[in-house]
Amino acid sequence: MGKLEETLRLIKEGVSNSKEIARRMDISVEEVEGIIKILESMGYIEKVEFGSPACESCPLKKICPGSCIHFKGEIYQLRKSNEYK
Amino acid sequence: MGSFTQGLKVIALAGNPNVGKTTIFNALTGLRQHVGNWPGVTVEKKEGIMEYKGEEFLVVDLPGTYSLTAHAVDELVARNFILEGNADVIVDVVDASCLMRNLFLTMEILEMGVKNVVIALNKIDIAKKKGARFDIKKMEKVLGIPVIPTNAKSGQGLDELRRVIKAAAEGKIVGNPISPVYDEPIEREIEHVSKVLEGTPLVEKYNVRWLAIKLLTRDQEVIKLILRYLGQTKMDEILQHISEVEEYYKRSLDIVIANQKYEFIDKLMHQFVTHFGEVRETLSDQLDKILTHPVYGIISLLAVFYALFKFVFTLGTPIQEWLGGVFDALGSSIAPHIGDEMLRGLIVDGMIGGVGAVLSFFPLVFLLFIAMAILEDSGYMARAATVMERIMRKFGLPGKSFIPMVLAFGCNVPAVMATRTLDNERDRILTMLINPLVPCSARMVVITFLAGAFFSAHQALVAVGIYAISILLALLSALFLGKFLIKGEESPFVIELPDYLVPAWKSVIIHSWERSKEFLRKAGTVILAGAIAIWYLSNYPAPIGGGLSYAEKLGEAVEPFTKLMGLDWRAAVSLIFGIIAKENVIATYGIIYGVGESEVALATLMKNAMTPLQAFVLGLVTTLYLPCIATIGAIRAEGGNKWAAVAVIYNLALSSIVGILVYNIGLLLGL
């Protein structure tokens, strides 16, 4: 199994952060992040937009006390439609 | 650009996003630029004129992409531009510090059969700092195309790049690009498809090997293109053949081909890149070993949130008490100037009292948002996410549910709306139903008030305890509802952990203020309206105390039930008004006791009427019972009447069971 598929397999298995994937595959975090970008462009995973789109369309936006909890770091989720088609 | 660009040689800049492509584009073209859109799509198109040795070239900046599949519009735009043969030279801007993923795109370009490709090996300074050394001559030889090391920011290598571009455009440099080689079954199939295509006019315009590879990956755009020339019967035959190869690999060929391409690049790179020095473990790596550990990560998470509440209470409580005094003084100073008793009651007890009781929590809310912003900006939240996700998965929640769950700590309404991002119906409904169990910032006001008033020595511990119980119940509810009510599959995800950073204070303060401002706005609208309504119901048809007011009647009607969890009619009325907005639970107490604006006086009166156990139950029930009206509305809008009803019934039942259990167990323990 090549690195792209191995990364997909680990994500599917529940390894949810890039550092842990890098450790398990014995490659650099930069390489894992590069693989993630390639998998994203191939449609195997997709970037998750965190928070703001839902908040922007929220009717309570004007009076909401904490609508924008966010964090640094990007989230990608496995796309079922492409998962080992 | 204008018609004057006709006849100019075209230079296309391709590359991954954030590789310095725009910097190179600006350096090559100077101010002679034009920005528009690519035809038919809203993708920005940048063009500019490059002048070199008296000659002009049209430079086109292609959208930044990681590959040239047909999954995104950007990729399609870049691919079609190259494919249609619009460029005389393609400058592939490659980030030397992330070479693997950059060369993946390079291989995709070379695989299209393009000869005039020049690599601008950018950010070479960063790569060198990371310990990488490049044998440029070898790289050129291996790839079969010119490679120019550049540092776009300093301008290093750009003159050489201009010279090579001109030479390539004039045909003085012609590359002999390498192309990835695949496994025997794939190569055999490429050859088979290529032979079929060779009899069509497609060969005149496109590289047949590239078309064959794309057909193997079932690229929809290429299938459509070839279908026009081959017809459905022939196409079905080819696709059937491809299915047999897929059957051999037991998976789709796009991932097989991409994998082999990646391994091909990996092998190539060893010929021209060497890495010196050990990869040392950074402080960030060492911290992550603890903070994302399955066991230590959870302990750290609890410790961090305990510290967060300790920080909020230690700094915020004295300011909160002072602010309560300010509202108290405001009410006292205004009261003598209002002659009309009813109007005085409305303004002093109702408006200033109700809103003041909630507003005195502003320092705590502001400090909480400061603490949250520090956690977010430092990069810790991403670590907390991985720890939480691991736990959530064990309880049958999809990874993606984490986003609405985290949003819910701010407000449940956008959190419920964020469940739209879950494409699986089961995941969406499940996340929507358990979302109101996550304590929002409005409930934080109630929790902090009760914890401060009744558990001053252990207020942070009690607050974290209520949060922890609520989250645990949300997870158990997910397990229960997922098992018996809604079944489905999981959807895993991965987080790219950012480096730890010292938060920038300016950004923390601005961010916290932006959020806190909304709290003030809510106090001036929803809470104010609620306070007026509570005041009216507490004073009509007769003032509270005689058992005749609407509020007392309402509370007494519900009291037989709330008594089971040790809560009297005042708590019952407060909980009812809390459905409008959870802060109203405190505002209602303030109005009922007629001390609204004085948070200290309210705490004293409540302590005389309730035991710490009852206060703990009230805090817990406020956190768990009915979602506020806005949240119920959001669930109805997103999931329909059925699920809004389920949410109401489930939350009510759960809070009642928990309230009764905790109160009675507490009594048995002598609390």
Features:
heterodimer; A: mainly alpha; two-stranded antiparallel ribbon; 2 strands; B: 671 residues; alpha/beta; Rossmann fold; Helix Hairpins; seven-stranded mixed β-sheet; 30 helices; 10 strands; 64% helix
Fold and architecture overview:
- The complex is a heterodimer of chains A (85) and B (671).
- With 85 residues, chain A is mostly helical.
- Chain A has one domain (3-80): Arc Repressor Mutant, subunit A (Orthogonal Bundle).
- Chain A is 44% helix and 11% strand.
- Chain A has helices at residues 3-13, 18-25, 29-41, 52-56; strands at residues 45-48, 74-78.
- A two-stranded antiparallel ribbon of chain A has the order 1-2.
- The radius of gyration of chain A is 16 Å and the shape is globular.
- The model of chain A is unreliable at 63-68 and 81-85 (pLDDT under 50).
- Chain B is α/β, with parallel strands linked by helices and 671 residues long.
- Chain B folds into 3 domains: 3-169, P-loop containing nucleotide triphosphate hydrolases (Rossmann fold), CATH 3.40.50.300; 184-275, Helix Hairpins; 296-486 and 536-668, no CATH class.
- In chain B, 64% of the residues lie in helices and 8% in strands.
- In chain B, the strands form 2 sheets. A 7-stranded mixed beta sheet of chain B has the order 2-3-4-1-5-6-8, with helices on both faces.
- In chain B, helix 15 packs antiparallel against helix 23, helix 21 (441-454) crosses helix 22 and helix 21 (441-454) crosses helix 27.
- The radius of gyration of chain B is 33 Å and the shape is elongated.
- The model of chain B has no long low-confidence stretch (mean pLDDT 86).
- Classes of the chains: A mainly alpha (85), B alpha/beta (671).
- Chains A and B meet through helix 1, helix 2, helix 3, helix 4 and strand 2 of A and helix 3, helix 12, helix 16, helix 17 and helix 18 of B.
